[in-house]
Structure prediction request, 512 residues.
Amino acid sequence: MTPGTRHPHSTRARCWTWPDGLAVIDRNGRLILANPAALRLCGLSPSDLPGAASPFPSSGGAEEAVVGWEAPGGGRREFAYQVRASRRGERVVAFRDVTESRRHQRRLAAIASAAGRVAAECSLSSTLDALAKEVLEADALASVQILTVNAAGESFQVMGTAGFGSTPDFFDLLIACMEAGAELRMIDAFTSRRPVVVPHRYATVMTDPVWEPIREHMRHPEWDWFASVPLLVRGEPVGVLNAYFAPGQEIGRTALDFLMAMGEQAAQAVAYAALLEREREVARREERQRLARDLHDSVVQQVFSMGMQVESLGMLSARGAVVDSAYVTRVAQELAGISKAVLGDLRAMVTDLHPTALSDEGLPAAVRTLAAVTTGRTGFEVCVTVTDQDDELGDLESELCEDAYRVVAEALHNSVKHSGGSLVTIDLALTRRGTQRRLTCEIADDGRGLPEQPAGEGGFGMTAMRERAARWDGELTTSARPSERGALVRLAIPLPTLLPAGPTRRPSLGNS
Prediction:
């Protein structure tokens, strides 16, 4: 041999001892030869060769690809591999285990996706269902459940699930198991505020009679290890995340850290939902207070006036005096006018409290209906202008439309009640600058203008309007109309950025 020439047998020996897998497969993807690393990665023994199925397709190029593999002894792995053709038509495969790195990538993506879902304003159940699915897919688990405590703190309810089927009475079945002597480790995680890991839990559930009430529900898909992590909000438990690991999987520190990170996202979703419910309750209380104020200012006083008129007629009749027919006619006309006004006020309040057009036809229709009812009730001229070139107002979130409508209704009420004018204009617009969009509502009247008060202050109605605007990162301002009489109330709410329209260009894959 010439100097520098490597002996083919020594080269083969070095390749065969590489830490990465090397294998030769036939045209059907079955193993012909495999080095020790390949056998170890695939969970095979030398006696399994030749003819054992491999995870690799018989065709493939020089570009690296990833394939999943269910080992005969259990457990799922992912291999990054490359396939090259040999002279005899066989294929040589070089591969390595990328299970943990790919799982780590999925975990990071799941955490980022979960954070995005929590930031978006979805329902709690849909958010937790999505989080459960993210956890399931990131770690290839058998099943995931997210349970939260009810408002009374007396029981758990399944709010998110992936893997197991839906069972409305799941917690009741668990209680039946506990009463029979079963140990509920999820309760331990909840009360101790610490994660709990139980190896080989499936075998216990499937064989111990105390688990009979829940057994069929937890039989499929098959699982092995169990983990439960608490959902904590400011240090207080609000629920648990239960993870059921597939056979062959064990719960290490990294997997537990991932579950705890997803538990934090779930806890944030629970806290956010509780915050929204408190805000809704405040809004409902505000509406009740405003309704009480409006009833007192209009309906109650008018009904009191009707009562006084009727009482005066009763007193005259009781004395036996002759009552002038002209007087009776005048009182009857006044009563008719007052009752008509009361009916109009009540109808306006019903429309304000329950704007059916808002849910049926959208914000512009609801505002137009409000304007028409106000005009008919008060005699004020209320003009509505809508600017929506791309018909996007109908796609806005219902809660955002509700808050915008309440701001318009409150501002219109204030103009009618306090301005002393005769005209109110409402300009409703969805404007766009590039990909940035903004909803604006301007309510202007021709009355006496704004009362003198310190900047930033206002009555109860003004405070409620500002809170509704702040809920959407918006701004509410009040000012005098430029060069005119009257006052101007302006609501501006930034809307989510739209992605650019048009076809998406695929990334180049090179010259091939």
User: Anything to note?
Assistant: The mean pLDDT is 79.
